Amino acid sequence: MKTINVNLRQDSYPVYLGNGILDQFAQILAKHTSARQIVVISVKEIFERYGEALLSGFENNEQVQVLLIPDGEKAKSLQQVEALYTRLLEKKFERGMVIAALGGGVVGDLSGFVAATYLRGVDFVQVPTTLLAQVDSSIGGKTGVNHPLGKNLIGAFKQPMFVLADTETLQSLPDAEMRCGLGEVIKYGFILNRAFFEYLKENTGKALQKDPETLLHLVETSAREKAKIVEQDEKENNLRMILNFGHTFGHALEAEFNYEGLKHGEAVILGMQCALLYAREAGRMKTEEFERGMEVLRQIPVPLQKNALNPDALLEHMTRDKKVHDKNIRLIIVEEIGTYKIDQTAGEEQIKTVWQKFIEMN
Ligand SMILES: NC(=O)c1ccc[n+]([C@@H]2O[C@H](COP(=O)([O-])OP(=O)(O)OC[C@H]3O[C@@H](n4cnc5c(N)ncnc54)[C@H](O)[C@@H]3O)[C@@H](O)[C@H]2O)c1
Ligand SMILES: [Zn+2]
Prior knowledge:
3-stranded antiparallel beta sheet, binds zinc ion, Rossmann fold, 12 strands, 13 helices, alpha/beta, 7-stranded mixed beta sheet, 2 domains, binds nicotinamide-adenine-dinucleotide, globular, Dehydroquinate synthase-like, alpha domain, single chain
């Protein structure tokens, strides 16, 4: 088992990482807390698959309660938060309790928000089971739910006591979820770590086939990169925005399909293609470097009907995006792989050209 430390002064915590480490949960928890009341929040299918291993180390199972929530993004709602408060209050859970989230980013975001607010805050643990959650959402303490007027608008910062990421759980992950997580993984290579990018160039195929060694390396490297960013910018004042590489273009695609046609990570993969196109068109990325970038992105198949897309409509989504500052669109761009730049020079015509080229490109 490996340990990655997220250093945030009094809020520091370890990310434990390994293949087949779920059954060490009770032992690890005991190292962190003497709490007697533990609540696991999960989704039925995930708990049926992994609950037994997770709880195998508890001598007295009575101290553990399991609360199941519906699957899917819709569960990230204030109604679901209230329903969880009610169940916790009815069962008389007190401040000394621990909430553990077993599942993907949805379970983590929702449970974390409940942990941040129930009785003004109780201890929290993340046990992420999707690639996206292991490399991104479980690290950094951003928790929250959606509002009818927008995604992730209600939330709190709540750092966990620890994260336990068992890459063996990824073996049951559907292919589309795997692609989504890989989008975020490749993002770290593009903006922060060229050696990792080169590794991905050779090993993305193995990752898609869920080779255990490859997955472990991907999760470890990505988690380390995410931890470094979070350490430098705990409350998202500035640096964390670089993690939006590919996201500004990606969000436009998600919005264009009403958040139904494309999954977030898939949209990010396409959004990174657009970001590369932008840098090349602006003469800021060499063609050779552009091709290298595209080669890796193209290894992840994303089904998309491009012929229905319209550059004007896509631009419109971007100018409504929250990352707009003083009319100019703020973009995270890559000129040389492994480094990033924050760019605020993109005019509307340039962006439209990018969308046009993207639509024409195979
Ligand atoms: N807090 C953050 O910093 C942060 C960062 C990025 C994304 N997010 C949020 O994360 C959410 C997306 O997370 P996600 O991609 O993990 O989606 P998700 O939690 O909806 O999980 C995707 C699907 O995979 C299933 N699943 C989970 N683990 C599985 C496993 N091991 N085997 C088989 N199926 C499994 C889930 O039940 C679900 O159906 C979004 O709500 C997004 O806003 C948060
Ligand atoms: Zn993302």
